[in-house]
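Retro notes, item 3 of 5
We never archived the inputs for the N-carbamoyl-L-aspartate complex last cycle. Fixing that now. Sequence and ligand:
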Amino acid sequence: MALCGSDLVSIIPLSTRDIMGLIEDAEELRRALRVYGSLSLARGRIMATVFLEPSTRTKLSFTFAMKRLGGDVVDFDASRSSLLKGETDRDTLRIIDGYGPDIIVLRQSKPGFPMEIKDEIEAPIINAGDGWNEHPTQALLDAYTIWRRLGRLSDLRVGIMGDLRYGRTPSSLSYLLAKFPGNTIYYIAPPELSVRPEIREKVAGKAEIIETESLEDVIEELDILYVTRLQKERLPDPSIYERLKGIYRVDAALLRRHRHIPLIMHPLPRTWELDPSVDEFPQAIYFEQARNGLYMRMSIVKNILCL
Ligand code: NCD
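Structure as it came back at the time:
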């Protein structure tokens, strides 16, 4: 798939070549930023950020990315918009698109929404999270982080732990890992949060899948442990949260019980599942992971804008 001029709504259409190309560009942009501070590649181009669900990292890193590329950003403030008068998300997007942004970064709560509207919208759309479905740019920055640390995206043993049912980062990361040879994905979750069937189906036959409820049984086999938050806002019933709260948790004491400690990743924000006592371990790379998001998102924007 050529990224130039196209939407990025899912990780699925990307080839391993596309992914490696994005990683190479992220490395190059990182070096260029170190030398020049800011670039002017995207001068005169405008990104619209449309976040209809909360965000810190994704929105800010896209904003920094576009500005460091020399472009402009217009942010849509949902909390003061005509959405409050009952305007639909679809109409809102059509209006924003009519003003002619060069790229739209969209986060919305309905799974599949970017796919539904992309043909009505002229600007390329980057999916910054569609409900529980997918978060492709997160998977790309996760891959970039793994590649920087381990030098490969194949022959990995990756544990993905936590809310595999309502989370969108486990799905996109799984689809990405399944493209590279020799990967094993350990899904670590209680039955109520086990991985969605469509993820299992798409990954089966490409990556090996191991499902378990016990982190401690498998932790020593892992190269990477990817921890995720229980998606409280998406649970059908608040009693589920109360019941599952604290059921899985990584802290320093747990890690010290093991001879081998994998790299620890987390898309953030964290709550109780990843204790700050882990921060002091050299294997804790989640802040580095968030920072890598800046360079990967610069790379994504550069490629979609054909710069
Ligand atoms: C994630 C998300 O929004 O899906 N956050 C992020 O973009 N880094 C993870 C989460 O909210 O748990």
